[in-house]
Amino acid sequence: NSFAVSLGFIDIPPTRGVLVCFEDTSEKQQASQMRRDFVANVSHELRTPLTALMGFIETLQGPARRDDVAIDRFLGIMQSEAARMERLVRDLLSLSRVESEERVRVKEPVDLGRIIGSVLHTLRPLAGESGCEIVFDPPEGVLVPGNSDQLQQVFTNLIENAIKYGGKGNAITITLDAAAPETSLRVPAVIARVADQGPGIDPLHIPRLTERFYRVDTHRSREMGGTGLGLAIVKHIINRHRGRLRIQSVPGQGSEFAVILPRWSAPE
Ligand code: ADP
């Protein structure tokens, strides 16, 4: 722990004396260290594709100027590096938006079955490319108080990860229960589970997965188009909804990401 000590004199009759203040500054120091790490990470993540782009532009202006095959190949790489920067900026904006919000303002109930259904519709082509089978039998009327765009983002990130990291031919099972069996939320809750049969995650990594830029395998994450921010965004959105994210995994068998959210109760 770190402390700040300040000294002062008191001379307000009848009180005379010396005042010594000890302030525990560990939390402040930790917060400012986290800010510095975050800025360093963002700079590094942006500089890598930028350096590649600059290199290819120079090559295209010089040695590869008249080489049609090289031009085609380099333009392809430049496009994917630019797309990587775009994804990073998009995720940074999402993160800053959810971080700057205290709590979601809730006016309407959100139907989780519909949200997951529409995410699956969007991700079907990606699942098809990976030969991945997704099973989801949507129950009706599982309602939670929340922001539908943000909850859509939660399930997009979780299902996209299950497809990306599950490996070829992986089977993904999504279940949705109107009554969570255990509820650490102390209010009636619902539970949505996204389970894959991929390689799983070593238990050592699990507590850190929702940190910004934390990846189990950085090279694989980048190759898959990951920014390292997906689960940080998921965690923030769920916290804003007063819910909980539970991650369980058995290496060699698969992983399960469970989203536990308070259930909608109609106003009197
Ligand atoms: P990324 O953009 O790298 O996918 P995330 O924050 O979404 O970042 O995930 C963090 C890390 O957690 C990933 O890099 C990956 O190593 C691991 N991970 C996430 N989901 C799964 C999964 N379903 N199976 C195995 N590993 C996963």
TrEMBL record:
Location relative to the cell: Cell membrane
Catalyzed reactions: ATP + protein L-histidine = ADP + protein N-phospho-L-histidine
Entry superkingdom: Bacteria
Keywords: ATP-binding, Cell membrane, Kinase, Membrane, Nucleotide-binding, Phosphoprotein, Transferase, Two-component regulatory system
Main subcellular location of this protein, as a coarse class: membrane
Gene Ontology CC terms, in alphabetical order: plasma membrane
BP term (GO), one: cellular response to phosphate starvation
Organism, scientific name: Roseovarius gaetbuli
EC number: 2.7.13.3
Lineage: Bacteria, Pseudomonadati, Pseudomonadota, Alphaproteobacteria, Rhodobacterales
Recorded GO MF terms: ATP binding; phosphoprotein phosphatase activity; phosphorelay sensor kinase activity
Histidine kinase domain boundaries: 41-265
Annotated protein name in UniProt: histidine kinase
